[in-house]
Amino acid sequence: MLRKHRQIPRRVLAGATGALAALVAVTLTGCGAGGGTTASGDDSITVLVEAGGHGELQPIADQFEKDTGTSVTFVELPYDGLYNRLNSEFSSGALSFDVAALDSIWLPTFAEALTPLDDMMTDDVQSDLFPALVTEAQVDGSFVGMPAWTNSEILYYRTDLFEDPAQQAAFKAEYGYDLVPPTTWEQYADIAAFFTQDTDGDGQVDVFGTDVKGAVETEWLATLSQTGETEMVVGDDGAVSLGDAESLEALDFYTSLLPYAPSGAAQLDWAGSQNLFNQGQLAMMRFWAHAYKQIPADSAVAGNVGVTTMIGGPGGVAGVPGAWYLSVPSGTSKQEKALEFVQYAYDHNELSVDTDLGLASRISVLEQYQDEPGYENYGPLIDTLNAASTIPRPANPQWQEIVDSALIPMIQKAVVPGADNQKLLDEAKAQVESIIG
């Protein structure tokens, strides 16, 4: 019997839809967000999906119906509403859907209620997926999700600033090396300091070198992996690594950028960061790859945005995978059709490329488009997700509680001037240990 899962409050959406969905109005389709029922008949299935990610699946669903005659009805919900719907229906056993798109961090929570996809996860399939995605998809020895799309933070920078001869000359005179997109922590800090400038001479900073996000955890987790830390906060054995040398190094670097970032770091989230960059107030930004397609045509930086691989620390380049998975509940009576749709979505993953998010999960699909105009973000995404230090978030059912109750509060306190980072890490460790029991 599936255990009762707690409800998870969320301030922002995670993974691929993280920054976008904060700006997207929820559009209800199909059965709607109320007490929907599974579409009737053998020639139809119902797919439960978060609103910001529906667009990734619609082209696949349209082609699936043309090719198989099976119609797909989507039920869209906001992020927290989707989790609560899954929680409620899995716990009660009264299912209204046949397939669900799940955030990667939910797979361990709902794994025992999902149909294993081991037969679908062939060696050929696994070889076309990033290593971290293969790891995330497997819970307790069984694959319970097929990646539908994936994401990671990459580095955004303003080409108008980086390619300005006057800026290039001034930077080289001050730092002794050429002004190019940074690849290391040291270069990132130098360039962030340099581009924190008063451009109109009024004594006020007009452009900041970077931002520091205090209201989200993923960017600090990427920084943690960049130290070479091999277990993200909680190891497979339940040991908590917070407070060790690597976590302190990561938090120290993260907060060392505060002088080159706008004020209000403790409340800055994905949407706020994206707005700052699009308004021309940041020279650089570490952000999810999908945002490259979201830059408004009338933005202050439109036409002047470059993207490259995420920066690296002592352990090299690392990002945090932000993947969503298609899963089939074991309780649906339409197992065959549901599994057919999941396989079809993998086989036709390229149909997700020309969408609002423009994301895919297969390496071959991303590589196919990476040299096409408008897809300049694909190469950096591939390189970041393939980096040896890029690891998935822990397969722990309490992970979201760890994030909400320990990690984000720790980061928000750390971005306050005068914070004792070691003490904050030690306190967060004790809280995580309490959560996981």
Automatic annotation (TrEMBL):
What PROSITE patterns is this protein classified in? PROKAR_LIPOPROTEIN
Is Transport among the key words of this record? yes
The organism's place on the tree of life at top rank: Bacteria
What InterPro entries would the database entry show?
Answer: Bact_solute-bd_prot1 (IPR050490), SBP (IPR006059)
Keywords in alphabetical order, please.
Answer: Signal, Transport
Q: Which Pfam families match?
A: SBP_bac_1
Kindly indicate where the leader peptide sits in this chain.
1-21
UniProt record similarity statement? Belongs to the bacterial solute-binding protein 1 family.
Its name, as the record gives it, is Extracellular solute-binding protein
Q: Which organism is it from?
A: Herbiconiux oxytropis
